[in-house]
Amino acid sequence: MANTSPSTNSLENYFLPFTANKDFKKDPRLLDRGEGVYYWNHKGDQVIDASSGLFCVPLGHGRKEIAEAVHQQLLKLDYSPSFQVSHLPAFTLAEKVAKMLPGDLNNVFFTICGSTAVDSAIKIIQAYQHAIGQAHRMKFVSRERAYHGVNIGGTSLSGMIKNREIFTASMPGVIHLRHTWLEENKYTKGQSENGAHLADDLQRFVDMYGPESIAGCFVEPIAGSTGTLVPPKGYLEKLRATCDKYGIVLVFDEVITGFGRTGKAFGAIKYNVQPDMILMAKAITNGAQPMGAVGVSDKIYNAIVDNGPEHGVEFFHGYTYSGHPACVAASLATLDIYEKENIFEKAEKMSSYFLDAVFDTFTGIPAVTDIRGDGLMAAIDLAVDKAPGVRGYDAQKKTFANGVHIKFTGDAGIIAPALIAEEKHIDEMLQKIKEVVVQY
Ligand SMILES: Cc1ncc(COP(=O)(O)O)c(C=O)c1O
User: Fold this and answer.
1) C-alpha torsion angle, residues 379, 381, 386, 390 (rounded to 10)
2) Residue 366: pLDDT over 70
3) How far is the CA of 8 from the centre of ligand 1 (A)?
4) Domain for residue 222, yes or no?
C-alpha cells in the first residue's frame, strides 16, 4: 500500500478545483471512506451524503460489484485505443445506453466526463450542420444560470457568472435564453404552471439573427448546479417546436438528470420532450470511474457518417480515453444494478416523500427564501448575507462540521440523495442541514 499519510506541508501542493484553497488548507475537509449513503472523514466522523457526491453516486458508495468489474477488466485488458481499434464491451455498453435513451438516440459517443461530452456535442453539431450544407449556422444558444462544464465550449455556454466572467477568450457566437427562475414561482414543488413564455426567447433570437443562423440549443432539463431550476410546464415543448421549425439541434444536457435523478431514466422521458442529443456522465458509472457520453439521433449520426469518405474518418474528434475499458466495465456493472434493483422506479416512488420532507423541513425558516425540486433533487435558497455566496460558503463548512455533505452553489444548497436512500436517511440529512440553517 502506498503511504498516503500527509507530511507537514503536503496540503500545499494540491491546487484544488472550485475550492477556496487558502481557507480549505487551514481546516481541510477530507473524506477517507464511503459506504452506502455515508462518508467518513479523516477524523473518523460519519458524514451523511446529501448530494450523492457531486450528484454522481445514485447507488451509494462502495458498491463492490462495480469495484470488482473494474478490477477484473484491468487485469484482462487495461487499455485499448479507440481510434481505428476498439474492444467489445464498449459496443455492448453503447447498445445498452442506446436502449435506455428515448427515441432514436441510437448512437453513443463516449467521452471522459461531462465537460468533454458538452464540447463533443458542440463539434458533432458543427459536423452535422456542415454535412447538410448548413455550415453557415455559427451561433449556439444556451441559458442564463446554465452549467455545461468547464472546457472552452462549455464555459462559453455556461450562464453562471463566476464560471465565465474572467474567461474572456472563449467561443464566440453564444447567446443566452433567460433563466427559468421566476419570483412568482417560489416554493413550487415540481413544474410550475407559469413560465413557458421564457422559451419564446429562442424565437426572438431567430427573428433577430435570421432563420438559418443558429446551429444548436443546449439546456439542462433541470438546471442542476445553479440550484435545481425545474422547467416550467410547456417550456421544453416550446423549445422543441422552435428548434423543429428552424432546423436547430436541441441538446439536453442530462449530466445530472440522467440515470434516474428525475424518477425516470432521463429528464427527456420524465418531461416527455424528445431532444436530438442527450449528454451523460456522473451516474453512468455511479461516479466510480470518470466517463461521459453523447447520445446522438440517427438523423445526425447518419448525416455525418454518410458525408464522410468511404474508407476514411468521418468525424475528426475523440479522446485517448474514449471508451476506456475500466470506465466501460464500471458503467456496465452500474447499469446492471439500475436494472436488477429497479432503481429508477424506487427513486420515482421516493420522490414525493423526499419533496414533502424538504418543504416541511425548511418552510418558515427565516433565512430560507425559496424551496423547489422535482424527482430526487431539490434546492433551498438562503438569504444573501453581506455578498452573494458568503452565507452559502459558511453553510457549506458548517453543515460538513455537523455531519452532512451538501453542495452549495452561491447561496443555494442542492439536496440530491442517493437513489437508494431510505426515508430515515432523508430525514437525517435534512435535520442536519436544518440545524445549521436555523442559526442564520
Ligand atoms: C449539466 C452539466 N453538464 C456538464 C457538467 C460537467 O461535468 P464534469 O464535471 O464531469 O466535466 C456538469 C457537472 O456538474 C453538469 O452538471
Assistant:
1) -10
2) yes
3) 34
4) yes
